Amino acid sequence: MPHPALAAPCDLIVAGSGAAGLACAITARTRGLSVVVVEKEPVFGGTTALSGGVLWIPLGPHGRQQNPQDTREAVQRYLRHEGGALHDEAAVNAFLEHGPRMVEFFERETALKFVPTLYPDYHPDAPGGAAVGRSILAAPYDIRGLGADMARLKPPLRTITFIGMMFNSSNADLKHFFQATRSLTSFAYVARRLMTHMKELALYRRGIHVTSGNALAARLAKSALDLGIPIVTDCPAREVLMEDGRAVGLRVEHEGQSLELRARHGVVLACGGFPHDAERIARAYPHVARGGEHLSPTPRSNTGDGVAMAEKAGGLAEIRLRDSAAWMPVSRVEFADGEVGVFPHLLDRYKPGVIAVLRGGQRFCNESDSYHDVGAALIRACEGQTETCAWLVCDRAALAKYGLGYVKPSPMPIGRFLKNGYLTEGRTLAELATRCGIDPQGLEATVSAYNGPAAQGQDPAFGRGSTAFNRYLADPNHAPNPCVAPVAQGPFYAVKLLMGDLGTFDGLRTSVNGQVLRADGSAIDGLYAVGNDRASIMGGNYPGAGITHGPNMTFGYVTAHHIADQADLDSR
What we know:
Layout lengths: L9 E6 L3 H12 L4 E4 L15 E3 L4 H6 L5 H12 L5 H21 L4 E3 L18 E4 L2 E2 L28 H8 L5 H21 L4 E2 L1 H15 L4 E2 L4 E7 L2 E9 L2 E13 L8 H7 L1 H4 L15 H8 L4 E2 L6 E10 L5 E5 L9 E4 L13 H11 L8 E6 H7 L12 H6 L3 E3 L2 H8 L3 H15 L13 H5 L19 E13 L2 E2 L6 E3 L5 E7 L19 H23 L1
Parallel strand pairs: 1-2, 1-11, 2-8, 11-21
Antiparallel strand pairs: 3-5, 4-5, 6-7, 9-10, 10-11, 12-19, 13-14, 13-18, 15-16, 16-18, 17-18, 20-21
Helix pairs in contact: 1-7, 1-17, 3-4, 4-17, 5-6, 14-15
């Protein structure tokens, strides 16, 4: 039988159960609206559950304690620099005004809790950039608080767990795992984490103490369920129901039936953007347009449903940004059970003794820049080529100390990765290059030119280690530059990088309040978009850790208040 929540009209329907959709649903419910959330997958959490769980919220309650000197003027200056010609002053001002309020509301009224991070902005030396105080992280959560709904929480990304154990996005947590064989304190920390996790696996068949995006998704779902908001899973939205130019509901599929769910005050699309819409990314992603491969670690169900439904209802989705997505260099991981995973290269690129090279053997960027900046540089560097790819290269010392991609540091074995081809080994740089398909002379020349200055901690070619963000995810115990060391001691190793994304930037044109707009700029009555279905307010740039979740939850909150305000006016 269909879920009872689908049997009667409600005030508001939200399609999608990620952070933006649930933030909107929860806010609307606290304003007195009846809300139903429908989710395409059999599990809830969307892209959020796979993410780092970080929010960029300048001038929020946590950030003001860390950086009391920060000002709205500085943040505005930074975002004008980042957005460039596509800077949206009205949307940015709304984000800065309501972001701190959103955080205060959720921490006061719901199960959502945040902790500060030490993340610098991704471009801290740019005008208005900050070295700390603008990024917060969802606090860890014991998912037993979800009760029976624990089974419906989307599991974390397989490639970034260790036997299912999650690592917090905070560098303070991760550093213990890198130092476990060199520090008694870190060894004890890791041992405690492992023992706790093994106990959880024995009792519950999954880790119950979740972190990062899994914690954010779990806390939001707990808050929604506590408020009586149904989250109906296995319920894909197929069409926005329109009457006289107004959105009045959704056509959904559930348990083999096509159902019409009516909504009195609005429909909110929060379906996760279009990273797996093959036709749309072929137009939006330059490397795909020229025939290259794209491997996104986002949910495969993010096929652009919200964008397509809005277009059919008259909305405008534009491909207008130079960078249509949050680029992420990734690698393909083949598991023993036959599953193919996608590994996002979030940490290895920052470590000393690891460099990235193109097919010609040359470096092309500062490897310690943000994943989006490195991805954008890779796309530009491979312009005119069919395949957009690079290789991370290191020597045996760096591999043993830091690992490389999905390959873990010593003492974890590397044999299976050499056997399945994920990791390539060469006794010499020339041998490594030949096995990878890299120009041997080019690689040897690059490493030779790099190694001399690197021995003194310098990188004159790209300035690696020159910013607070470069250094944040590097090795603080490596001197004089935590990001730079020679690639000197064979054997040498490489992992092939391909392009992926963490979500799309291009999307539906909306008003500041989230109303879906037509090509002529008029609003479609009753139809809203939040999250990655809505075009990013950052102009295709990526200013800091949490630049997706921060605006997405903020505008989910803003949109809900707008809908509730309109409902109040309609009732008078």
